[in-house]
Design brief:
The chain is of the alpha+beta class. It has three helices and six strands, in the order αβββαβαββ.
Protein backbone atom coordinates (compact mmCIF):
# COMPACT_ATOMS: atom_id res chain seq x y z
CA UNK A 1 0.00 0.00 0.00
CA UNK A 2 1.34 3.41 -0.98
CA UNK A 3 1.97 5.61 2.05
CA UNK A 4 -0.40 8.59 2.42
CA UNK A 5 2.51 11.04 2.03
CA UNK A 6 3.72 9.42 -1.20
CA UNK A 7 0.18 9.20 -2.57
CA UNK A 8 -0.32 12.91 -1.84
CA UNK A 9 2.92 13.75 -3.69
CA UNK A 10 1.89 11.71 -6.73
CA UNK A 11 -1.64 13.13 -6.79
CA UNK A 12 -0.40 16.69 -6.33
CA UNK A 13 2.03 16.25 -9.20
CA UNK A 14 -0.75 14.81 -11.39
CA UNK A 15 -3.04 17.73 -10.48
CA UNK A 16 -0.37 20.28 -11.34
CA UNK A 17 0.21 21.51 -7.78
CA UNK A 18 3.53 23.28 -7.57
CA UNK A 19 6.42 21.25 -6.18
CA UNK A 20 7.88 22.09 -2.79
CA UNK A 21 11.32 22.87 -4.16
CA UNK A 22 12.19 24.55 -7.39
CA UNK A 23 15.30 23.51 -9.21
CA UNK A 24 18.04 25.41 -11.00
CA UNK A 25 17.45 26.06 -14.69
CA UNK A 26 17.72 22.88 -16.71
CA UNK A 27 17.07 20.58 -13.73
CA UNK A 28 13.86 18.84 -12.72
CA UNK A 29 12.04 20.18 -9.66
CA UNK A 30 11.45 18.07 -6.54
CA UNK A 31 8.07 17.39 -4.92
CA UNK A 32 9.68 17.55 -1.48
CA UNK A 33 13.08 18.34 0.00
CA UNK A 34 12.91 15.95 2.95
CA UNK A 35 13.74 12.31 3.55
CA UNK A 36 10.62 10.14 3.20
CA UNK A 37 11.76 8.09 6.24
CA UNK A 38 12.89 10.63 8.83
CA UNK A 39 11.70 13.94 7.34
CA UNK A 40 15.12 15.59 7.69
CA UNK A 41 15.95 18.25 5.12
CA UNK A 42 18.21 17.03 2.32
CA UNK A 43 20.96 19.36 1.21
CA UNK A 44 22.15 18.76 -1.40
CA UNK A 45 19.12 17.11 -2.99
CA UNK A 46 19.81 13.68 -4.52
CA UNK A 47 20.31 13.54 -8.27
CA UNK A 48 20.79 9.79 -8.80
CA UNK A 49 18.03 7.17 -8.70
CA UNK A 50 18.99 6.21 -5.11
CA UNK A 51 20.74 7.93 -2.25
CA UNK A 52 21.26 7.19 1.43
CA UNK A 53 19.85 9.77 3.79
CA UNK A 54 22.70 11.38 5.76
CA UNK A 55 20.50 11.48 8.90
CA UNK A 56 18.90 8.02 9.05
CA UNK A 57 20.99 6.06 6.48
CA UNK A 58 17.85 4.73 4.76
CA UNK A 59 17.93 4.47 0.97
CA UNK A 60 15.84 7.16 -0.68
CA UNK A 61 14.47 6.24 -4.11
CA UNK A 62 14.00 8.98 -6.69
CA UNK A 63 11.15 8.43 -9.15
CA UNK A 64 10.48 10.96 -11.90
CA UNK A 65 6.80 11.62 -12.58
CA UNK A 66 6.41 11.09 -16.36
CA UNK A 67 3.61 13.66 -16.64
CA UNK A 68 5.42 16.74 -15.41
CA UNK A 69 8.97 15.58 -14.67
CA UNK A 70 8.87 16.27 -10.94
CA UNK A 71 11.27 14.18 -8.85
CA UNK A 72 9.57 12.23 -6.07
CA UNK A 73 11.66 11.22 -3.04
CA UNK A 74 10.17 7.91 -1.88
CA UNK A 75 10.72 4.93 0.37
CA UNK A 76 11.65 1.67 -1.34
CA UNK A 77 8.11 0.30 -0.92
CA UNK A 78 6.50 3.48 -2.24
CA UNK A 79 8.91 3.61 -5.19
CA UNK A 80 7.93 0.08 -6.24
CA UNK A 81 4.26 1.00 -6.13
CA UNK A 82 4.81 4.31 -7.94
CA UNK A 83 6.79 2.58 -10.70
CA UNK A 84 4.04 -0.05 -11.08
CA UNK A 85 1.39 2.69 -11.33
CA UNK A 86 3.45 4.58 -13.90
CA UNK A 87 3.86 1.39 -15.97
CA UNK A 88 0.13 0.59 -15.69
CA UNK A 89 -0.72 4.09 -16.93
CA UNK A 90 1.72 3.70 -19.83
CA UNK A 91 0.16 0.37 -20.84
CA UNK A 92 -3.36 1.79 -20.52
CA UNK A 93 -2.47 4.72 -22.79
CA UNK A 94 -0.75 2.41 -25.28
CA UNK A 95 -3.74 0.07 -25.38
CA UNK A 96 -6.20 2.96 -25.82
CA UNK A 97 -4.18 4.28 -28.75
CA UNK A 98 -3.94 0.78 -30.18
CA UNK A 99 -7.74 0.34 -30.05
CA UNK A 100 -8.23 3.46 -32.20
CA UNK A 101 -5.57 2.30 -34.66
CA UNK A 102 -7.09 -1.20 -34.85
CA UNK A 103 -10.56 0.15 -35.72
CA UNK A 104 -9.01 2.35 -38.41
CA UNK A 105 -7.16 -0.70 -39.74
CA UNK A 106 -10.45 -2.62 -40.05
CA UNK A 107 -12.04 0.28 -41.93
CA UNK A 108 -9.12 0.19 -44.36
CA UNK A 109 -9.57 -3.55 -44.92
CA UNK A 110 -13.27 -3.02 -45.69
CA UNK A 111 -12.37 -0.25 -48.16
CA UNK A 112 -9.84 -2.60 -49.81
CA UNK A 113 -12.49 -5.29 -50.27
CA UNK A 114 -11.42 -7.77 -47.60
CA UNK A 115 -14.21 -9.82 -46.01
CA UNK A 116 -12.53 -11.27 -42.94
CA UNK A 117 -9.61 -10.93 -40.57
CA UNK A 118 -7.64 -13.35 -38.44
CA UNK A 119 -6.42 -12.22 -35.05
CA UNK A 120 -2.66 -12.59 -34.74
CA UNK A 121 -0.96 -12.63 -31.36
CA UNK A 122 2.70 -11.66 -31.34
CA UNK A 123 5.12 -12.51 -28.57
CA UNK A 124 7.20 -9.34 -28.27
CA UNK A 125 7.22 -9.01 -24.52
CA UNK A 126 6.69 -12.43 -22.92
CA UNK A 127 3.67 -14.70 -23.10
CA UNK A 128 0.33 -13.26 -24.23
CA UNK A 129 -2.43 -13.07 -21.63
CA UNK A 130 -5.42 -15.44 -21.56
CA UNK A 131 -7.71 -12.89 -23.25
CA UNK A 132 -5.34 -12.59 -26.21
CA UNK A 133 -4.61 -16.34 -26.41
CA UNK A 134 -8.38 -16.96 -26.66
CA UNK A 135 -8.48 -14.93 -29.91
CA UNK A 136 -5.27 -16.19 -31.50
CA UNK A 137 -5.73 -17.57 -35.01
CA UNK A 138 -9.53 -17.16 -35.10
CA UNK A 139 -11.06 -15.78 -38.31
CA UNK A 140 -13.88 -13.26 -38.04
CA UNK A 141 -16.00 -11.44 -40.60
CA UNK A 142 -14.62 -7.91 -40.43
CA UNK A 143 -17.85 -6.44 -39.08
CA UNK A 144 -17.77 -8.99 -36.22
CA UNK A 145 -14.07 -8.72 -35.42
CA UNK A 146 -13.44 -8.35 -31.70
CA UNK A 147 -11.92 -5.16 -30.40
CA UNK A 148 -8.21 -5.30 -29.76
CA UNK A 149 -6.86 -5.09 -27.25
CA UNK A 150 -9.56 -7.44 -25.95
CA UNK A 151 -11.40 -6.67 -22.72
CA UNK A 152 -9.31 -7.95 -19.84
CA UNK A 153 -6.01 -7.83 -21.74
CA UNK A 154 -3.21 -8.19 -19.23
CA UNK A 155 -0.25 -8.70 -21.55
CA UNK A 156 3.00 -7.53 -19.97
CA UNK A 157 4.10 -4.40 -21.76
CA UNK A 158 0.72 -3.96 -23.47
CA UNK A 159 -1.30 -5.87 -26.04
CA UNK A 160 0.50 -7.35 -29.06
CA UNK A 161 -2.60 -8.47 -31.00
CA UNK A 162 -3.17 -7.45 -34.60
CA UNK A 163 -5.51 -8.20 -37.50
CA UNK A 164 -4.43 -10.05 -40.62
CA UNK A 165 -6.81 -9.69 -43.59
CA UNK A 166 -7.98 -12.98 -45.07
CA UNK A 167 -10.70 -14.38 -47.34
Amino acid sequence: MLSPAALALILDAADGIAPAASAPAGERPYATVTCPYCSSNLDPLPKASKKKCPSCSQTIHIVIDPVDGIRLLLTEADAKIAKALIEADRIKATNASMAVDARDELRGYVADGWAAVEVQVELYDGEPCAACRALAGIKFPIREAPKIPPAGCACPGGCDCSYDPTD
